[in-house]
């Protein structure tokens, strides 16, 4: 019975295909960052909101941070959408999470091509 309940909840998730595509995108980004470590310099400019200089730099492994945060946003927003009844809010939460995956991908790819030696 519990299995039927979880299937019912997943089927009630709006934009289900895009949600799963966002999860796959984030996992691919994380694995891509791990696979390209040898092509990246020891530090990468990740924190553009900070003052210019060394404060913007982070170790190259931190390049996976936007994808990890986006994956967490996807998971948290989906859990929240299971609990609320309003269909508009469910869709807004899932679309916001999918948008965060898209922007994380753009950020990681642009930084990698900016500083990487491919």
General description of the model:
With 118 residues, the protein is mainly α. The chain has one domain (16-115). The chain contains four helices and two strands; from the N terminus they run H-H-E-E-H-H. It has helices at 2-11, 16-35, 65-83, 87-115, and strands at 43-45, 57-59. The chain has a two-stranded antiparallel sheet. The longest helix has 29 residues, at 87-115. It is elongated, with a radius of gyration of 17 Å. It starts with a helix and ends with a helix. The model has no long low-confidence stretch (mean pLDDT 89).
Short overview:
The protein has 118 residues and is mainly α. 66% of the residues lie in helices and 5% in strands. Helix 2 (16-35) packs antiparallel against helix 3 (65-83) and helix 2 runs parallel beside helix 4.
Q: Indicate the multimeric state.
A: single chain
What is the number of domains? 1
Low-confidence blocks of residues: none
Report the biggest beta sheet as strand number plus sense, adding barrel if it closes. 2 strands, antiparallel
What best-fitting shape do the alpha-carbon axes yield?
elongated
The overall pLDDT average reads 89
Strand content: 5-15%
**Total of DSSP H or I helical runs spanning 4+ residues:** 4
Rounded to an integer, what's the Rg over CA atoms?
A: 17 Å
Q: What is the ordering of alpha helices and beta strands?
A: HHEEHH
Query: What class would the helix/strand composition place it in?
Result: mainly alpha
Helix content: 55-70%
| Major sheet: arrangement of strands | 1-2
Total strand segments: 2
Distance between the termini: 51 Å
């Amino acid at each position: 019975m519990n299995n039927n309940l979880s299937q019912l909840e997943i089927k009630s998730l709006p934009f289900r295909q895009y949600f799963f595509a966002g999860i796959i995108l984030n996992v691919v980004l994380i694995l891509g960052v791990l696979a390209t470590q040898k092509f990246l310099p020891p530090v990468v400019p990740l924190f553009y909101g900070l003052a210019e200089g060394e404060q913007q730099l982070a170790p190259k492994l931190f390049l996976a941070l936007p994808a990890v945060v986006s994956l967490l946003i996807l998971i948290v927003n989906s859990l929240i959408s299971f609990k609320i009844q309003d269909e508009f809010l469910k869709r807004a939460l899932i679309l916001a999470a999918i948008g965060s995956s898209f922007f994380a991908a753009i950020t990681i790819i642009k930084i990698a091509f900016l500083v990487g030696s491919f």
